[in-house]
């Protein structure tokens, strides 16, 4: 999944809006500045029409992976009705929203670009009507604020890696799966996962609160639902919804700031009979039919034998920006104009890298034209979209083929599991200056227990890295 600067630049677009018996008002795209009235476009390389078309194109591919509840099931009918009532209150362009229920017990929900929204039965069963409305309002807000295509646009400009799953850096995959990955959407054996920055989550909280307030639901229900999930999370497991939607840490404050701008009102009290009936109907479901999971998505990664990690012989590769050598038994994803992902057989899937290296580059934001600041921005971007990834110590001075470089160790959770739990992962980040303001970087990834065995290969790759003149 992708390049991303920690804080998206927001530019307010000034447009006069005339409403009956009211003075003209300025259109607002920033929830921190007041009621949102339009969609952000600044810095987004996709038009809204392209965004809608891409979401529609992705629907059949996504739905191959999901066991969906029939559209005539009471829960499907209720969610479709509730979703459209909320969507009618969404500001800005009226996207062609659709709402489907996924027959999975895990608490999760996600939105595709342009309006398709999916919610698991586990989410419906876990919440009150207002809390479920809060989840849907939050997902609608991701569409309203165009988070998927804004994320992909930043990726195209910067090439900073974005997590596909919690604690895992993205592979360079192609086709429709790679395009979804650029938008922060990945498909795994367990379902579909989204990955947003904390800034995006803050916007979705605030705009979602506006939507459900306008629909007559108490916006604090969204906060209480997220708090319940956080309590379930405990020591680090818990609902995948929180892995897909990292807690910005101030949800209650964000919602309160929205409500302080709006007149007090009486919210709907309790659950309506249609919601109760829909929820009851979920308790009578038989076993779900298996989803049509693609071979790539279904592959679970496992620890590799030490003898299979890296060959002693190396292969040379000529990239457009650099030359590099890598073990001859490794596979290569990417081309001379894109990021490269290098990995041993069985070390990566279409979604994740468990063993290997990612080589790419990005142009830092203002003030990031020196190596220290460029490395700081790179690290900040990676950690912002990998909440479980933590740095060990400070960046250290090193060199790559005589060029000054920075090196930093990080730790997180691998995509490889043992006894149902992810094993610890170790990551080494190496960054150096390229031409102009470009920062080139190498990310070396392996389970912590196998990292030292791969260290000679990682160091040989590092010292083979030569900037093309």
Structure commentary:
- It is built from 14 helices and 17 strands.
- It has about 475 residues and is α+β, with helices and mostly antiparallel strands.
- It folds into 2 domains: about 250 residues, no CATH class; about 170 residues, Mog1/PsbP, alpha/beta/alpha sandwich (Protein Transport Mog1p, Chain A, 3-Layer(aba) Sandwich), CATH 3.40.1000.
- The strands form 5 sheets. A 7-stranded antiparallel beta sheet has the order 10-11-12-16-15-14-13, with helices on both faces.
- Strand 6 and strand 7 form a beta hairpin.
- The two termini are about 30 Å apart.
- The N terminus is likely disordered.
Keywords:
single chain; 469 residues; Protein Transport Mog1p, Chain A; 2 domains; 35% helix
Compact summary:
The protein has 469 residues and is an alpha+beta fold. It has helices at 48-64, 74-87, 121-126, 129-144, 147-158, 175-182, 198-214, 220-233, 240-244, 251-259, 273-282, 295-298, 371-385, 448-464, and strands at 16-17, 25-26, 98-102, 109-111, 116-120, 185-188, 191-194, 314-318, 322-327, 331-333, 340-343, 356-362, 390-400, 403-418, 421-433, 439-447, 466-467.
């Amino acid at each position: 999944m992708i390049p991303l600067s920690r804080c998206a630049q927001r530019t307010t677009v000034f447009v006069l809006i005339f409403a009956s018996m009211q003075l003209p008002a300025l259109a607002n795209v920033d929830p921190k500045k007041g009621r949102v009235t339009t969609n952000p476009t600044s810095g987004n390389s996709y038009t809204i029409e392209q965004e809608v078309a891409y979401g529609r194109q992705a629907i059949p591919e996504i739905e191959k992976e999901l066991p969906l509840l029939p559209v005539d099931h009471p829960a499907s009918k209720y969610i479709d009705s509730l979703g459209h009532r909320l969507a009618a209150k969404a500001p800005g362009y009226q996207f062609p929203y659709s709402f489907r229920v996924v027959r999975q017990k895990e608490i999760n929900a996600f939105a595709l670009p342009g309006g398709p929204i999916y919610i698991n039965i586990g989410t419906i069963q876990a919440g009150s009507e207002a809390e479920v409305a809060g989840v849907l309002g939050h997902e609608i807000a991701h569409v309203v604020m165009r988070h998927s295509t804004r994320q992909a646009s930043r990726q195209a400009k910067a090439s900073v890696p974005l997590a596909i799953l919690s604690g895992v850096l993205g592979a360079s995959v192609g086709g429709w799966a790679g395009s979804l990955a650029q938008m922060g959407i990945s498909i795994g054996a367990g379902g579909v996962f989204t990955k947003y920055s904390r800034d995006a989550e803050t916007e979705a909280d605030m705009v979602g609160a506006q939507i459900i307030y306008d629909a007559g639901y108490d916006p604090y229900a969204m906060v209480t639902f997220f708090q319940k999930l956080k309590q379930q999370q405990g020591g680090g497991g818990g609902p995948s919804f929180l892995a897909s939607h990292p807690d910005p840490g101030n949800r209650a404050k964000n919602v309160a700031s929205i409500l302080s701008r709006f007149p007090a009102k009486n919210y709907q009290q309790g659950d309506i009979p249609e919601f109760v009936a829909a929820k009851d109907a979920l308790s009578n479901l038989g076993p779900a039919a298996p989803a049509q999971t693609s071979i790539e998505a279904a592959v679970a990664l496992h620890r590799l034998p030490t003898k299979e990690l890296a060959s002693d012989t190396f292969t040379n590769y000529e990239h457009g920006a650099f030359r590099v050598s890598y073990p001859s038994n490794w596979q290569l994803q990417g081309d001379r104009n894109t990021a490269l992902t290098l990995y041993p057989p069985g070390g990566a899937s279409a979604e994740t890298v468990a063993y290997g290296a990612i080589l790419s580059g990005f142009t830092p934001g203002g003030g990031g034209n020196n190596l220290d600041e460029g490395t700081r921005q790179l690290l900040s971007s990676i950690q912002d979209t990998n909440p479980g990834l933590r740095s060990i110590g400070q960046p250290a001075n090193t060199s790559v083929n005589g060029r000054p470089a920075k090196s930093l160790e990080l730790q997180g959770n691998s995509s490889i599991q043992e006894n149902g739990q992810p094993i610890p992962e170790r990551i080494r980040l190496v960054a150096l200056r390229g031409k102009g303001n470009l920062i080139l970087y190498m990310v070396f990834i392996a389970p912590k227990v196998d990292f030292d065995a791969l260290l000679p290969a990682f160091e040989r790759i590092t010292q083979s890295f030569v900037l093309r003149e």
